[in-house]
Specification:
mainly alpha, Clc chloride channel, Alpha-Beta Plaits, 3 domains, four-stranded antiparallel sheet, 18 helices, globular
Length: 511
C-alpha cells in the first residue's frame, strides 16, 4: 500500500519533525507518567498489605487468590500479544532494524496494564524498559495518524523511546542519548532534533506530575580524591566480571524455565509472584525495581554480610522475575545490583585498606553507571543517566573512569550489548530472512567507513538486491548516478527487503 501524502510527511522540513517529536513527547510523557504513578501506588499498597500480614496471617489466603487471578490474566495478555514480554526494548530495536512489526494499539494498552500488574506486584522488575516500549508505540501511533512514511516511522519510534526513558527517570539528556546510542545506533540531524524535542517535552510533562526532585537523590557527594582513582579502575574490573556473569545467566534463564514441566510458558509468572510472599513478609523494603534500595544503601550502614545478602537476593530474584516473561524490564534492577556491588566494594576497601567510609556513597553512584555500561555497552547513556538521576553533574569524571574501565574489561571478556543479545534470542532463526516486501531505510555514512567514503557509487560494494535511491547531504538532496561521490556525513536512502535491512546495514558497516 502506498504511503499517504500530507504536509506531515514532507522530509525536508525540520520544523515538521520538531513538531511531531514534541507531540510524541507530550503524549508519551502523559502515558509513562500515569504508568509510573500507578506502579508506585501499587507497590506502596503491596508493602502495606504485607505489613498487615504480621497481625492478620489470614491475609495470605487473599494474597494467593490475587496471585492466581493475576497470573491467569497476564497469561491471557501474553498469549494474545507476545510482544509485551519482558522489557520491550529488544522489540523496539527489532522495529528499527525492520525485523519485527508490531500492532501498536494492542501493545500499548496490554503493555500498560500488564506492566502495572507485574511491576506493581513487587517483582524485581523495572518500569523503564516498558516505558521505552510504551513511548515507542506512541511514536508509531503518531506516525500513523500523521500519515508518515516508513522512514518517519523509525524516527518517531526512536523519539518515542527517548521520551519514554526521559519520563521514567526525569532524565531528558539520557533519554536522547539512549535513543541515538542504544536504539538507533546511527546519527542524523533529523533524528537528533526529533528525539530532542520528544525527550524535552516528555520530561516537562513528567516534572509537572512528579516535581523537580531527581529520581535517586542521594544528597551531596564528597569530592573523590585524585590519589584514589586507581580504585575506580579496580571497581570497573569488578563490574565487568559481574556484568559477564549477569549476561550469561540472563541469556539462559528462559531455557532453564523450560525445564519446569508442570506450567505452560505463559504461566511462568506464577513463580516470581509466589516468591513475592516471603520477601514481602520478611523484607518488604526490597520489593520492586530497587529505587528505595539504592537510597537505603546510601543512607544506612550495612555489614558486609548484609550487603552480600542484598546483592545475591537482588541478582537471583531479578533473574527469576525477568526470566518468567512478565512485562517488566531490567533497567532499574540492573542499577540496583550495581549499587549493591559499589556499596560492597566500598565497604571492603574501607575495612581492609583504610579508604574513607565517606566515599562508599560515591562508589554506589559510580558503580551504577559502570555496571550499566558493562552490560549494555552504552557508556554515554550510563554516565549521563546516573548523573541526571542523582542530580549531580560533578561526578562526571570519576563516573567516566569507572564506566570506561568497565567497558574495556567487559569488551575483553566478550560481553555484547545486552539488548542486541536479547533481540537475537527473541528472533531465533528468523533474522535475516526475506519477507518479499520492500522498504527504504536511511544509512548515515560514518567517517570511518572506508568502503564508502570518497568512493563513486559504481565503485562501492553494495549488498545484493539493494538500490540507492537518494543521497541527502545537509539540506541538499542528490539523485545518485554511477559517478556520484559519497562523503562522510551523507545520508543514503536505500531500498531493500524489509526482512534483510539489519543484515544490509551490517554489510555496509563492514561487519
Amino acid at each position: 500500500m502506498k504511503d499517504k501524502i500530507s504536509i506531515w510527511s514532507i522530509p525536508l522540513n525540520p520544523i515538521g519533525y520538531v513538531i511531531r517529536g514534541g507531540l510524541v513527547g507530550i503524549l508519551a510523557g502523559y502515558v509513562v507518567s500515569i504508568f509510573r504513578l500507578s506502579i508506585q501506588q501499587s507497590i506502596n499498597y503491596v508493602k502495606t498489605f504485607f505489613e498487615r500480614t504480621h497481625e492478620h496471617p489470614a491475609l495470605f489466603f487473599y494474597a494467593i487468590i490475587c496471585i492466581i487471578l493475576a497470573t491467569l490474566f497476564l497469561s491471557w495478555l501474553l498469549r494474545s500479544e507476545p510482544n509485551i514480554k519482558g522489557s520491550g526494548i529488544p522489540q523496539v530495536k527489532g522495529q528499527i532494524q525492520g525485523v519485527i512489526e508490531l500492532n501498536w494499539k494492542s501493545v500499548l494498552w496490554k503493555k500498560f496494564v500488564g506492566g502495572i500488574l507485574s511491576i506493581g506486584s513487587g517483582a524485581f522488575l523495572g518500569r523503564e524498559g516498558p516505558s521505552i516500549q510504551l513511548g515507542a508505540t506512541v511514536g508509531q501511533g503518531v506516525n500513523e495518524y500523521t500519515h508518515g512514511n516508513k522512514t518517519d516511522e523509525k524516527i518517531l519510534i526512536t523519539s518515542g523511546a527517548s521520551a519514554g526513558l526521559s519520563a521514567a527517570f526525569n532524565a531528558p539528556v539520557a533519554g536522547l542519548l539512549f535513543g541515538l546510542e542504544e536504539i538507533h545506533h546511527h546519527f542524523s540531524s533529523t533524528l537528533l532534533v526529533t528525539c530532542f524535542a520528544a525527550s524535552i517535552t516528555s520530561n516537562f510533562v513528567s516534572l509537572n506530575i512528579f516535581g523537580m526532585t531527581p529520581v535517586l537523590y542521594l544528597g551531596e557527594l564528597p569530592t573523590f580524591p585524585l590519589q584514589s582513582y586507581l580504585w575506580l579502575i579496580a571497581l570497573g574490573g569488578l563490574l565487568a566480571v559481574f556484568g559477564y556473569l549477569y549476561q550469561k545467566v540472563l541469556f539462559h534463564i528462559s531455557e532453564w524455565y523450560q525445564h519446569i514441566r508442570f506450567l505452560p510458558n505463559h504461566m511462568y509468572g506464577l513463580i516470581p509472584f509466589l516468591l513475592i510472599i516471603p520477601i514481602g513478609y520478611f523484607v518488604p523494603d526490597l520489593l520492586g525495581g530497587g529505587a528505595e534500595v539504592i537510597i537505603g544503601l546510601s543512607h544506612t550502614y550495612f555489614s558486609l554480610g548484609m550487603l552480600a545478602l542484598i546483592l545475591v537476593l537482588r541478582f537471583v530474584f531479578s533473574m527469576i522475575s525477568y526470566g518468567s516473561g512478565l512485562p517488566g524490564g531490567i533497567f532499574l534492577p540492573l542499577l540496583t545490583i550495581g549499587a549493591s556491588l559499589g556499596a560492597l566494594f566500598g565497604q571492603l576497601i574501607h575495612i581492609y585498606f583504610g579508604v574513607d567510609d565517606e566515599l562508599i556513597r560515591c562508589f554506589i553512584v559510580y558503580a551504577m553507571a559502570g555496571y550499566f555500561t558493562a552490560i549494555c555497552k552504552a557508556p554515554l547513556t550510563g554516565i549521563i543517566l546516573v548523573s541526571e538521576m542523582v542530580g549531580n553533574l560533578e561526578v562526571l569524571m570519576p563516573i567516566a573512569i569507572v564506566s570506561l574501565s568497565a567497558y574495556v574489561f567487559a569488551d575483553m571478556m566478550g560481553v555484547i550489548p545486552v539488548y542486541d543479545g536479547l533481540l537475537q534470542k527473541l528472533l531465533g532463526g528468523q533474522i535475516g530472512h526475506k519477507k518479499g516486501r520492500y522498504t527504504t531505510f536511511v544509512y548515515p555514512v560514518a567517517v570511518t567507513n572506508t568502503s564508502l567514503v570518497g568512493k563513486r557509487v559504481k565503485d562501492c560494494p553494495w549488498p545484493s538486491e539493494t538500490l540507492l535511491v537518494l543521497i541527502k547531504r545537509g539540506e541538499k538532496e542528490i539523485v545518485p548516478h554511477g559517478d556520484t561521490v559519497i562523503y562522510a556525513g551523507d545520508l543514503l536512502f536505500i531500498s531493500a527487503d524489509v526482512g534483510l535491512e539489519s543484515t544490509y546495514q551490517k554489510q555496509l558497516d563492514g561487519r
